[in-house]
Amino acid sequence: MRRVLAWFMILTWASVADTPQFSFLVLSPINWPAGHLPEGWQVKINTGSPEIATVQEGRDKYLDLKSHNSSYGVEREVDVDPKAAPYLTWKWKAKQLPAGGDFRRSRTDDQAAQVLVAFTDRHVLSYIWDTSAPQGDMESAGSLPLMHIYVVVCRSGSRDLNQWLRETHNVAEDYERAFGRPAPRVKGVRLQINTQHTGTFAESCFSEVAFRSAPQS
User: Which of 203, 195, 2 is nearest to 85 (CA)?
Assistant: First the structure.
């Protein structure tokens, strides 16, 4: 993985010689075979049955995730230094939110879309599109065995449904704000959907995901 990251650094440095910026594409539509998960990604099932489609519309490729009373995601290992590439960017679209979903209560803790960033110390940042919790809310989601999760609400409610949106978050700053110390290396990324608590339905889509040395203009 370090060799892959170095290759992406070299590729991007060569194209922007006067501004030494680089990006590591975690999920890229380039060389992505339609009908198959992108290389390096695996399905992780918590409960229920996954409903995953890899879709191509013209030149656009994306993952479509549906959840009927289920909880699952797709994940891949990475090795990223958040000091060098602190900006996590991605594109997502929510089509249907879980009715009554609200991460602040365990019985309603369902989301149409989550981007989870796992660090080498078993701490996790979870960037979510929630049905009810206010946009901008940041709080601990409690500790699971050997894991501590901190949630950032990126989007809330149905106002932006069925629109492709680009998100940018500084994971190094968010980690330090959440856990009170500098961020260690990132070891994994997961794209997740769940509706098992509310017993409802949700659907979301994900496109490009990348770590970058600078925010996109």
Answer: 2
Q: What is the pLDDT of residues 150-176, one digit of tens each?
A: 999 999 999 999 999 999 999 999 999
Count of Cβ atoms closer than 10 Å to residue 173 Cβ: 13
Q: Quick one: pLDDT band at residue 20, thresholds 50, 70, 90?
A: low
Distance CA 51, CA 55 (A): 13
Domains of the chain: 23-212 (2.60.120.260)
Cα–Cα distances in angstroms (integers) from residue 163 to residues 4, 93, 111, 166, 203, in the given order: 32, 6, 17, 10, 13
The dihedrals phi and psi of 25, each to the nearest 5 degrees, come to: -80, 110
**Residue 192, strand partner residues:** 73, 114
Terminal CA-CA length for the chain: 27
* The model's pTM: 0.89
